[in-house]
Design a protein that fits this description.
69 residues, alpha+beta, Structural Genomics Hypothetical 15.5 Kd Protein In mrcA-pckA Intergenic Region, Chain A, five-stranded mixed beta sheet, two-stranded antiparallel ribbon, 20% helix, 32% strand, globular
Length: 69
């Protein structure tokens, strides 16, 4: 499981995708979420504005598992 460290209270799902190097630009977030399934704490979510806080776990089939710390 890959840890993604944040220095703020939360980051958005779109910011997470960029921070984890799954996408190169923030503009690619909408496309990525439309093409791939993203599970946040076991539930599928496609909202790039979804707030992720410390302790949240993300599963992206084919890309891996991530945890926000």
């Amino acid at each position: 499981m890959t840890e993604i460290k944040i220095d703020t209270e939360y980051i958005t799902l779109g910011q997470f995708l960029k921070a984890s190097d799954l996408i190169q630009t923030g503009g690619m977030a909408k496309w990525f979420l439309g093409e791939y399934e993203v599970f946040v704490n076991g539930e599928q979510d496609q909202r790039r504005g979804r707030k992720l806080r410390s302790g949240d776990k993300l599963e992206i089939p084919g890309f891996g598992s991530f945890v926000i710390v």
